[in-house]
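User: Is it possible to get a 3D structure for a protein together with its bound compound? The compound here is beta-D-glucopyranose. I've pasted both below.
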Amino acid sequence: MAEASFHFPHGFIWGTATSSHQVEGNNTNNNWYAWEQQGHIVQNQKAGLACDWWGGRWREDFDRAADAKQNAHRLSLEWSRIQPARERWDEDALDHYREMVRNLRDRNMTPVVTLQHFTEPLWITEMGSWENSDVVAHFAAYVARAVEALREYVDTWVTINEPNVLTFSGYVIGDFPPGKNSLGTAMRVITNIVRAHAAAYAEIHKLQPAANVGVSHYFRHLQPAHAWSPLDRMVTRWQSAIFNELVPNALHTGVLNFLGRKKRIPEARGTQDYFGIDYYTSDRVAFSLLRPGELFGHRSPPEGAELSDTGFIANVPEGLFQAIRWSMQFKLPIIITENGIEDAEDSLRPQYLAEHIQQMWRAVNFNWPVRGYFYWTLVDNFEWERGWTQRFGLWELDPDSQARRRRPSVDFYAQICRENRLSSEMVAKYAPAILEKMFPG
Ligand code: BGC
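Assistant: Yes, that's possible. Here is the predicted structure of the complex:
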């Protein structure tokens, strides 16, 4: 084994990411609360108290993150708290978020704030949610209000988390609210989301000209199941074009290009100041006539890849490098806004962390402008339609007692953050099985 280190540039951002509904608890005025009451979550679970951040436990969790040498935190605002009804703004909620981001600054952590992370107020749902183009103006008004309240402490904003996941899960696959299965509706939704992002981008820059604004893009690394098969290659191309590329291209060019059907949204052109990547996993895609709803592609984990607890994530670190390489075309600074694995026993997480950070370093080593990394997530939280069955946290959470327990990955990640590098010594300690592979020689 060679003794070596992968170093990161001075000032590199190291943090974790969270979202309001997944951690706050008692969010009873949004579409996910309603969805949970209708029994759509695995084992009929509910977000409930979540990590009790609204009750004040964000303080102890921010302490944990700061003690673990993280220098940034990505959190989201709950629109339904800030604007509980169309004509009602809640100043106490804004004060609560101001207090949170001020406390991050006090702990020398840079706040990155997401303005919409999958949830919306019920009054928005009642007017037809993202299918109704009126949402664009409502979203812009909410964003302006939130930015005005927080701009003293925040200058990096994620307008909308994963427009592609929000649209596909809600309107094509149907496991997110409103549970629809219609490609036509999905196109209307994505159009309104792109418009809403563009409107938010303009509002933020009006209030804070030097702001960094972007979305976080969920990038799924897709490869044809059989490289020799033209049909597998074609269907992989389609899925990539729609799932991975549609939104980023629209925000770059102002044109939404759905397999050749083009819609011009000129105000969206050039509306990203950085490129946010959420990368988790990879699929092989095989052509299948039985899957018209998935554009005739059957997705499965790459052969031989280690799988997470519930099989939700295949460990394919190279996909992160490919995501970064692909996003270089947009000529923007890059932030890995999410990356992580569900692993209750912490048996695969240290390896996953080490290998993904190594792939990110490959990009850094080419002087590609990767500025930071956010591990998903700080403490186990409510994983949407998968409820509490998946544990992504560095810290384990018992949602009933609210007790937190440190997983070994806390200390591994803390050492990476503190030393701004990943060394063979750290890998020898936390992920010895891959030492020889990562540091051959
Ligand atoms: C979402 C998070 C989610 C994570 C793991 C991401 O796509 O942004 O909200 O918890 O995946 O499922």
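The chain has one domain: 5-438. Residues 19, 22, 161-162, 165, 218, 278, 338, 376, 383, 392 surround beta-D-glucopyranose (CB under 6 Å).
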